[in-house]
Amino acid sequence: MMTTMRIERERLEITTSDNGWTVAGEIDASTAPTLDDALRILPVGNGTVVVDVSDVTFIDSSGLRVLISVATRAEEAGRSVILEQPSPTVTRLLEITGLTEMFGLAIDPTDT
Amino acid sequence: MHGSGDVAADARGHLPERLTFADESIRGMTSSGDDSALPDQRAVLDALGGAVVATGPDGVILLWNRGAEALYGWTEPEVLGRSILDVLAPPADLHIAARQSRDLFEQFGYAQEAAGLGTWRWDMATGQTTWDEGLESLFGLPNGGFDESFDMYVSLLHPDDREKVLAIIADAVETKSRYRVDHRVVWPDGSIHWISGVGGVTLDANDAVTGTVGCMMDVTDRIEKELIRQRLAEATLRASDIEEVQRGRLAFLALTNEALNASSTIREMMENVTRQAVPHLGDWCAIHVVTPDGRPSPEVEFAHVDPELEARARRLFEQLPYDPDGHDGVAAVIRTGVAEYHPDLSDDAISGSATEARVLASHFDLRSVITVAIKRSGRTFGALQFSASASSRRFTAEDLTLAEAVAGRIASSIENIRLHERERQIAHTLQYSLLPTSLPDIADIDLAVRYWPNGALGEVGGDFYDVFELEHDGQLAVVLGDVCGTGPEAAALTGLARHTIRDSAWHGDGPEQVLTALNRAVRRSGNETFLTCLYGTLDAESRPQTLTVTCGGHPLPVHIRNNKAVALGVPGTLLGALDDIVVVTTSIALAPGDVVVFHTDGATDAPPPIDLDETGWTQLVGEAARPGGTADEISDRIERALEAIVPFGARADDIALVVLVVGSGDGHR
User: Fold this and answer.
1) Which of A28, A61, A95 sits opposite B571 (nearest CB)?
2) CA B165, CA B175: separation in Å to the nearest integer?
3) Residue B290 CB: number of other CB atoms within 10 A?
4) Could you state, in chain order, the average pLDDT of each consecutive group of 10 residues for chain A (112 residues)?
5) Which pLDDT band holds residue B489 (cuts at 50, 70, 90)?
6) What angle do CA B365, B366, B371 make, to 5 degrees?
7) Residue B11 neighbours by CB under 8 Å, 6+ apart
8) Least buried of A90, B264, B288, B637, by fewest C-beta within 10 Å?
9) Which residues contact B234 (CB under 8 A, 6 or more apart)?
10) What pLDDT is attached to residue B373?
């Protein structure tokens, strides 16, 4: 079953999938709380949680906070989170904050 | 309906001059194809000496023979498709009928049965009223059931219509004219039926009234259908009115919530609310909010459906002194907290009332007024007033309830906004108190710092910076950080970070240990937030000077040498998110003329459409450093360049900047 919700005049779109979510649009201080609500309950099962962020056009620290809390919840449940096809803006933020490994994007920190 | 018959009569020449007919409009209707009589039948009918008229069940004439033409003076084409009631209505002047020697009464012949007609005749001389069988059945009576008395006729009329019917008949006799009347009759079985009747007086050669004649027709179906249609139309109209009002209320309630949520200042809230109130809840809305500084007159904002009238109201209210002791209206409501509700202000009430009600009523014809206190837990913050003009609507108790509910929400919104304003003030104070008041004076190193709170939200962000001397002489620590989040919580975490870093650094901890200590402190603080931090050290004594840079999730600084700007250092883990972090320290030897610019991500993290990523930032900083100069001059150039790309008002995050310029080695700092 797929459900899609749009908020903030379609600035952010969240679609649920079987093993996670697809998030598209802008994640900032005003859209992050909704994203946080939407991603609060992990998908059923004990597999890897997948968040497709290929169409995220903007993300700042408030968006990062949401992703971290998803990762934390997954970890508490003995699961892991993978960010699928991160857009450049997501990759950049994860690299700067040293969190690529946390989200299954192994990038050598000394490679920059 | 009457009148045009005179002209027609002249044209025909042989018609009585005073013949009038009702419902000329029917003339336009034809019997198109209803002429079902065959030619030979027709010849027989015409050959008959008498008048033969045939109608359909609805009274529409289908056949009109030569005898009828001779008798009534209408040719067949003139009457086909018309109602028998109109054509055969007894003329007011029956000279012609008298001349025809045959009684009109008998001439309805075939017509009446088919059309459900009944006829009657009243002979004034004998006092006898004669009804035919058809008329008896129209009154629900058996054949011969009518006792031929006028009293019985009257008794069968519906009580509510009796007076009207008798008056019309009396008038017709008086004026020797004809009449037409729709009325109800009550059958012996109690059922009510609608009758349409036409009648007229009969006159003798001397114009004296000899009696009356007439015919009637049952029109119950038509009238009832019409009544049902009317009632339905009225009910629909009423329902849609109520619905309209109800819709307006709901819309206003929803819009008010939105308006309140979207307001970050009291003034903004006042404007938003009044704009949403009209026309959803009246033609006029005013909001008065008492200022916390105790000024006697409250802040006022209002809206009127008509922008011109609103402008006029603005001029009027500017001249109106506010009387806090006013015995009614806004002042009284604010003073007492008790709502005022005037569904329909009378002239007396207006002349005796306080200023604003008088102004509203006299200048804008606003006669229905609700004034409620904006209050919460016993505290009155102001008053909310709705008015509707005399021509639009009158407020009801439901409107009063709605107004009070809205006022309650406004009150909590005012509380929130004021609380928020206070919080913001505290956070600002706290934030600035955490920034160093002066920079260390070090030979051959020129330092400048900038801090710009965000312009878009007016919130306090979590950016901070610190520059302090370490234990050893000429050893300096440069710190930049960004706490995720805003407000007092972020400011508190900023304080924790600043002290943890200084404490750890003064203990002699290396850069990685300092950031690890900070990570642990944030994790232990129980704050569900995190921060990015750059910890740099500068050995200003050694030659060349040595700079180390360690980043915990923080944007890398830009190093400019020989007009070449590059990011310096290696990204490390964000602090406060994980128990274990990985941070890497990069060390470089500085050269005279080198410029290093440290920043927080407010500079590069502007949301679209502004696109200034790290590469763009590095380029911008490189450009700003190119002409050389002091750290202050370079900072100013960066500020101007940044303003051109990300205007202050569009910044959703605050920005902290530390600029370090290595001197030429002549001892000048």
Assistant:
1) A95
2) 15
3) 20
4) 54 88 88 88 89 90 88 90 90 87 64 42
5) confident
6) 160
7) none
8) B264
9) none
10) 94
Q: Are B586 and B549 in contact (CB under 8 A)?
A: yes
pTM, entire model: 0.50
Q: How many CB pairs under 8 A join A and B?
A: 74
Determine the pLDDT at residue B516. 95
Report the percentage of chain B scoring pLDDT > 90. 19
B604 CB contacts (<8 Å, ≥6 apart)?
B555, B612, B613, B614, B616, B617
Residue B376 has pLDDT above 50, yes or no: yes
Please provide residue B523's backbone torsions phi and psi, each rounded to the nearest 5 degrees.
Answer: -60, -40
DSSP 3-state helix, strand, coil percentages of chain B (rounded to 5)?
A: 40, 25, 35
What six digits make up the tokens of B185? 């009759």
Of A28, A97, A109, the CB nearest to B574: A97
**Chain B residues close to A69, C-beta within 8 Å:** 528
Instruction: Report CA torsion sign: B642, B645, B646, B647.
Output: positive
Alpha-helical regions (H) of B157-219: 159-175
Q: Which residues pair with B196 in a beta bridge?
A: B182, B217
Cite the beta strand spans of B545-606 per DSSP E.
546-552, 558-561, 564-567, 585-589, 595-599
Contacts of A112 in chain B (CB under 8 A): 567, 570-571
Q: Which two tokens stand for residue B284?
A: 């006029």
Torsion angle, alpha carbons of B646, B652, B654, B659, to 10: -20
Residue B650 is given by DSSP the state G
CA B224 from centroid of its chain's CA atoms: 39
| CB contact burial B622-649 (16+ within 10 A = b; e otherwise) | bebbeeebebebbbbbbbebbeeebeee
Find where tokens 């997954």 sit.
Answer: A74
pLDDT, residue B649, reads 66
